[in-house]
Structures
1.
Amino acid sequence: MSYSLIHNGTVIDGNGRSPIPNGAVLIRDNKIEQVGRKSDIRLPNSDVQMIDAQGGHILPGLIDTHVHFIFDGVNFVAAMNTPFSLGYYQAIGPMRRTLDAGITSVRDAGGADLGMKQAVEQGLIEGPRMQISISILTITGGHGDGWLPSGGGFDIVPPTPGRPSGLCDGVEEVRKKVREVLRAGAEVIKVCSTGGVLSPTDHPEFTQFTPEELEVMVQEAAYRRGIKVMAHAQGAEGIKNAVRAGIHSIEHGIYVDDEAIELMLERGTYLVPTLLAPLAVLEAAESGGSMPEWGIRKSREVIEIHSENIGRAFKAGVKVAMGTDAGVMKHGTNLRELGLMCNVGLSPMDSIVATTKTAAECLGWDDKVGTLESGKLAD
């Protein structure tokens, strides 16, 4: 049994309460034992390792609920020439940079498979704890179907031995696909209920999957110890279809309207804004990156309405969990999202809570991470 005391800092516990000046956190092994002013901490009789925060801030480990570790800045030409197994080695750097940014837990929204998660858990590589979706479920011609007018194509998240294809149409095909992804080790199901920005044959406002198809995804996932479904959902109708089907979190939410906001409040649905994603596409294009024309055009189209609608949803009381779509931009730059959330109406403390407590609740991990409280992991 070993003790550590982090002291000489301002404690921000993730609950949204006022910061604690001259704060400290007492840790036993890898769990939090006490939090408060240093003068109120009861030290054990045994030796305590003293860690000086040097006047900084002491926060919970931060959480990004929407990342893609299999890419690190979108470069379609490079991706088409990368053996799938090389991609796993290339993910080692992004995982380390994510940790260095203070992010200790993530939800990978498509791409990382069971082997990547286990490599972190077994200490083979350094990275945040991961909740994985593995594949991205989509319809023929939808966001995630890489078909091109040439007759060829390129899937952003291509199938591999550990990552089934996410393409499925019709209720029974959808049911089987959910089962395949769960068999591969998914801990959350990722579906595209609308089109998107970085896909050639659709638009963010296009609706994907029928209500019945979405409902069967939720049903099949729930059979497996209550696994949740997250939806890439940008257009208003696709957002509403997802919420009505019982989907747990809405990713992006670009065109969320008043009716969708009311539904989300009624159902307790989480919203993961990823405000950084369209901005990153435009920044990459301006810096000479290999961004496709359709991605640039659609990013310009959505960037202002995206910010406006996320601000309205937060003001109405929708639960906002921080997520970035990291992989579209470089991993390790994730915390730019907090500033963007402040730009649309969240206070600095609101943005911290979205990145700690609310994000942990969205992942179903609030019993172990997200706030500085006795018994939780000392991230």
Note: The chain has two domains: 3-58, 62-346.
2.
Amino acid sequence: MAKILICDEIDEEATDKLKNFADVETGKEKLNDLEKLEKYDCLIVRSATKITKDVIAKAKNLKIIARAGAGLDNVDMIAAKEKGIKVVNAPDSLTISVSEMVFGSLLCLIRKISDADKSMKKGKWEKKKFKGNEIYGKNLGIIGFGKIGKRVAAIANAFNARVFAYDSLITDEKIYENLNVRHCKSIDEILKECNIISLHVPLMNETKNLINEGNIKLIKKDAVIINTSRGGIINEKALTDVLKNNEIAGACLDVFENEPNLNPEFKNLENVVLTPHLGSATEEAQKRAGMDVVVQIEKFFKG
């Protein structure tokens, strides 16, 4: 019977399904006992746990790593490949939750919902202070046009926004046209043209500091930027500088460079909405992610 370590909690129903065909243990702390790692055939993680080269080297019987989510930046893919270890994930499971989070945080920012809520709870009625902006008619730019980017485009169209998108890997004009999206040829075009900018790219060497001290200056003064993808894609110093100087209108951030530690510069800014990596934190998304990887694990071990 395969031995599986669940490092980060997954859906209870998915865990029960695992127990039907495997010996299951839980607890991230067990990764610290590197000497005992060799007994596991499979490791399951979400975003909190990093599967490093050292972990892979010590887990001598490891055959498969499952990421109950989309991004694989917390798994050393090179080390896994060198050892012949299969890596699976659940890229489709989070699309709905993350794309809905984009608009939840966006509306919270541009309609000043959080600030109004805090004011009301202090017994105040400051209606004039919290005049906001609509999504309707705005230029909404999407950087990264994968599944989540496309879903964001569909929702943006429902708001009657004008949707723009850039993706270095997707060049077929028909894909954009079919979704009523204007295809931009560069990131700079998105930054210059759009009032709302939403990032949907994985964290890789090519996307680290994708938004940086240079190109962030292209963003309009009345624009907001949203990051629900990965910390590190926006250079946080560059972002805090333009926010402090009111060079852009605001930011919605669900991901950060050094999670769970927050850059202290953000704490004093009123033009940001901050959330602790909640993009996939819905009951439905976690159930989908858990069941998706369990099905793949079962297929792997049962052939």
Note: The first strand starts at residue 2 and ends at 6.
3.
Amino acid sequence: MKIDGYCDERFISVKQAFEKNFKLGLEVGASFAVSLNGELVVDIWGGFSDSAKTKIWEKDSIVNVFSTTKIMTALCIHLLIDRGLIDVDAPVAKYWPEFAQAGKENVLIKHLMSHSAGLPGFDEKIPIEALYDWDRITGLLASQKPWWKSGTKIGYHMITFGYLLGELVRRVTRKSLGEFFRDEIAVPFNIDFHIGLSESYDSRVASIITPEEVFSKWLIILAKLIFKKAVKVYYNPNLENTDFNDRGWRSAEIPASNGHGNARSIAQVGSILACGGMFDKKMILKLSTVEKAIEPQISGRDVVMMYAPAKFGLGFGLLNDDLLLGPRSFYWSGAGGSLCIMDLEKKLSIGYAMNKMYMKGKDPRTGKLIKAVWDSINSE
């Protein structure tokens, strides 16, 4: 398998680990990138963009990266915080008055950003197509009662995170979150990442390759018996049989789940945060804003993610032993494997995007890649 792109000789073990994943049959098409001190030191890709392996994964191939999109969504909120347009300690209803319904008048913006607001799913049964109707979804969330007292529990807001924060962006800027990200980040800094993908990009979008069973049968049975909140989140709407290559899914703005990009663009966005708000010699955020973003807001067992241990800052995960995170590291990842890791101390960001989803627990691909990056950094 030919691996294309650039790899600094200090990170040759990263390229070797990436290539080995293909040799082991773990990948169909993928990209991996590392930015250090604001410079791309690894920007590699390989494989195919389709399951039939007829279309080569190119330098500019992009793919749906699912929840890694939450990094971009959180960045948009931090831009508004940095400009004094949003107060993270203020009630959501200050900016979105309708949100105060059903006892939510004291839900704070920081609760939305730390997955502790109590709105991880929908009470009303909805079809997948409802996610393409912004007003319908935000209306449901505005009228819904929280599943727990906000700020007291962690429950991963898998889909709702993007609508809740995206509506804040819309109320403050009069732009959708996808438009705001495009105008403030993607276009000015030539970052190839999209939330709400125009049909004009379809020719370079890699097809998502899903396993026959997104969730293993034993996990579904266990969840239905014990983890009822997880079932309400994962199966309303039922994403298991969703065609993530459908034009409706691609074009909608689902800012928690359907951003399209590649490892390079993920690492570039991550670099803004990892470098304390600097990118391309421009100050996008104050360092103090980034510092506050990674202050722990809540920790404990996630009632949606089957009581897995979790710790959140403002929009970012702070706890994951598998990723070998340092004391100043933060991250988020997407269903099937994509991820973004940032380290403020080392000014390091890592991006990974692929089209073959892995849904059986710990991903055998990323662990090797991340270890190779950290080993390369620490050997300098």
Note: The chain has a mean pLDDT of 94.
4.
Amino acid sequence: MSHATPSIAPFVTDFATADLCDDNAMLLEDGRLAVLPPVLRHFGKRTRFAGRVVTLKVFEDNALVRAMLETPGDGQVLVVDGGGSLRRALVGGQLALLAQDNGWAGVVVDGCVRDSMEIDSCDIGIRALATHPQRGAKKGAGERNVRVQIAGVPVNPGDWLYADADGILVAQQRLA
């Protein structure tokens, strides 16, 4: 089955998080650039991804995640504060494919994913705490475009997120 390629601006891929840290030491010192703790696992074909942040705050319910990924991503990164829950998955293979087809650069989940082998076949970058086979609830509970926390690091709508094999950075401004 062939999936249409979205017509969006090119993804930001010409960066290395180590270089961004080295080149922006003052931003690290004053808190305008933060490094997420190395607790999130990588899923999907895209190891390196970056983009402007869109946020969701949910708990064991992925209806808002689906609703957001159904919209054009335009190279943005969806950051989902799932409260660190390890009891249900917030993203699975279908949502990863939806994110890919709608032009999202990546998804970062403070929670679990499922269908990891399906996700790994998608041209998308996804970071999450772990895998869990049980899907999330579908009640629609949660908040959009609010300040969230991922592994204890605050993330705001409109921030920029950079992820590669060395780590994940969150910046208040575009760096690359």
Note: The chain has one domain: 32-171.
